[in-house]
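Please predict the structure of the following assembly.
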Amino acid sequence: MDQSNNKKTPPTRTRKYVFSRRADRIFLELSYIYAFVARFFREVLFPPYEFKEVIKQCYEVGVRSLPLISVTGFIIGIVFTNQSRPSLADFGATSLLPALISVAIVRAMGPLVTAIIAAGRVGSSIGAELGSMRVTEQIDAMEVSATNPYKFLVVSRVLATTFMIPALTMYTTLVSLLGGYLNVHQNELTTLTTFFTQVFDAITFLDIISSSVKSVLFGFTIGMVGCYKGYNSSKGTEGVGKAANSSVVTAMFLIFIEELLVMQVINAIRVL
Amino acid sequence: MKKINPNIIRENKVIEIRGLQKAFDEFEVLKNVDLNLYQGENLVVLGRSGTGKSVLIKIISGLLRADAGMVNVLGQEVGHLSPKQLDALRLKIGFSFQNSALYDSMTVKENLEFPLVRHSKHMTQRDRTRIIDVVLEAVGLTKAMHQMPSELSGGQRKRIGIARTLILRPEIMLYDEPTAGLDPITCIEINKLINEVQRRFNTSSIIITHDLTCARAVGDRLVMLLDGEFKRQGTFEEVFATDDERVKAFYNYNFID
């Protein structure tokens, strides 16, 4: 081995860009996102399966969201009914309130409200947890112990959100309808049976399908965005905060885009 | 205290590195690194912060990819392994992280069980508990079994981190700054533990540090990383017998009156 010397070697590597630094970064980021999502579909199919972790995450995502979802869904049902009444009353059509509430909540508000609450509660928590695990080298520790951290952390969480958001959506829909019923019952003295008969008369099979498809999509998006942001976070504690924050913002943005796209597709099917 | 280790087998290289290069963007961290780790040896890698010491052991464990050069671990070239082969190799390498990297959401027992459950699937719960008891006893923390990492002190976390790597009985141990951020007494305990692990589990180790007390206590051989290359190697006295200002500054900082 050589003896020490003070001669400094100049950097020999120079970076060239295909388009520009910024454009290259965007394309690179897109390729990372694609690889991250594609890896999920590869990993989810092949063993080993982390069943215990999936169940634990389902509990975290589903059961722990129940109090917040219950209160929010119930209040939304009451407020929406209350705000819709004056418009219908102008035409003497308050008897149509259950049908209106039903269509609005089942088709759009149920999945959307659930997804937005979940993006705030679950998405940020996933982003922060994985981000913190990344910066404290816990993910590296899993990797060097020959455990697949992607399967243990990402697949389990994405599966949990994909399974639990549809379940939570059904629950939110029911709770919101109950809130709506209370308001209708108080003002129009409608019975529970009449209310729910009108609710089910107003919705179609396509509404249920569209609501289910949307909630599955929203669940997948919330899980995937939270995991991507957290798993790839850097720059210490600042990076953890950013991961949590951008998990929520990005997930919400994508949820609204998906809502718009699915609505267009369903409307196109509806007129067939 | 000078360390003498008669168990080093110089004919058997467990790690062999030739012409290793690694850069991050335009910053070359490792320029042309050659290194041998012999069976049963504790090799200390010294160097200032940011000189690429941790990068070196991350490349050895396959966490980072080298830009150029050959890294041979236990007869296998790390850069050419499939993910499955790399996982098989990683079971023979224990990696003790600078901040211990214990899983925050799990108890000490669950932390130790985590690799066992995944790699020894046919093992009964009783056998797992027995192995956990053995490694906890080895690091002197049998009472911490049901505690959460947040309830442990820095030194205890380091010990549990080492215990977790020992649970799969690795042949090679990689310690990243094992005494960083610890008080002098705990540092001495960790140094003793590193030597105890080497003796009891018959491991060969690379210890990354800039703590010269630790280097002297645990190192059979020392190498110093300067400007991305190993410029000095030998025993503690040999490494510091130089007029190079950078090496002298390193010594003076650690042993200043």
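Chain A has a mean pLDDT of 91. The CA atoms of residues 158 and 224 of chain A lie 6 Å apart.
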